[in-house]
């Protein structure tokens, strides 16, 4: 494979940026470059330095003056909810019963799953997201469709067949045994195939019987290197119902703890209304709280206390995500715009470097995958997004008064969307422009 040299303004984080002046937290090159070989970044730095390392016949793509960043990572999203997004007027449990569960029954049909998986990954790439942690439907075929599509694109995705055996229509129910068997079959077929990762995915405590939760715990013990994903403390009615269903548990978090579901690879969507005890339990176990701002606002679930979770004595690991279709946008830029507002409503701030850290390196750290994705470091996999802050007329005008990188990032976050995403590379190959060419 010939080398590819991307030239542009490169930005990648080393660690959490404490302030906008924390320049040691990131690497930024005005005239930077990345050398890509066999799907990996083999050199990064100034164009002058990197160009010298390129092999014979290198293909150079000049992205100047645009920004080159690691591809965005969405750590919680429901691929079967593409036709649920923008469903009007309900809080979580009504929304699930009225719109979501009926829609997910359609994924019994493998053909439907294949169509939506294709459209979903198209949409992700168009928005600059190169890795997702996805919930499929309860049907094994939906996960197979997702992995087939993801593998064909050589994307690093983490996904799981949802396990749910009660409190939902028959068309979306499995059993403790079939949920276990199907998850195991997916693991043997897909986990570690190319860049695919299987996640153990009990939907949440309301839709899993104690027997099924036990099976999920067994899977976590049997496959300790897999991720586990579920929902936790999203709204008050959900919390009350969960505590009724599991009266022996101290609180909602304790329900999952009792089945051995807390841990460094465990991702808890929402985690909004946590007591100090619950936050301590998540922190002690290294579990991740996943912030889904557009969803939390849309469903009126509550305000995730990002800065408190970060700065408490026992801090939480935090990831950010769209949660489509409870979430209202596929874009991690739109997501961080809403995150900023959720945090502001609680009297705190998230500076633009922190936002871009979160959707790149921060999310990769939360997934324990930072040695592979989320940075532009040499040796990592070449998942890259190219952003153009002048792509939209209103942004182009505002750019006339922008003087710093921090201001440009904040503009990208506040007004940007898929139009700002000029190009996306997945495993070193152009993916967004390819899609446009194929459609033409
Ligand atoms: N809790 C259980 N399932 C879901 C879901 O699909 N979306 C959201 N937002 N919360 C959930
Ligand atoms: Zn969710």
TrEMBL record:
Q: Which residues form the Amidohydrolase-related domain?
A: 68-429
The pathway noted for it is: Purine metabolism; guanine degradation; xanthine from guanine: step 1/1
Give the E.C. number(s).
3.5.4.3
Please give the superkingdom of this protein's source: Bacteria
Keyword Metal-binding recorded: yes
- Needed co-factor(s): Zn(2+)
- First-level EC class: hydrolase
Q: What InterPro entries does this protein's entry cite?
A: Amidohydro-rel, Guanine_deaminase, Metal-dep_hydrolase_composite, Metal_Hydrolase, Metallo-dep_hydrolases
- Which UniProt keywords are listed? Hydrolase, Metal-binding, Zinc
Cofactor note text: Binds 1 zinc ion per subunit.
GO molecular function of the protein, one example? guanine deaminase activity
Q: Could you tell me what reaction this enzyme catalyses?
A: guanine + H2O + H(+) = xanthine + NH4(+)
Q: Which PANTHER family match?
A: GUANINE DEAMINASE (PTHR11271)
The role this protein plays is: Catalyzes the hydrolytic deamination of guanine, producing xanthine and ammonia.
Q: Which family does it belong to?
A: Belongs to the metallo-dependent hydrolases superfamily. ATZ/TRZ family.
Per its record, how is this protein called by name? Answer: Guanine deaminase
Source species: Ollibium composti
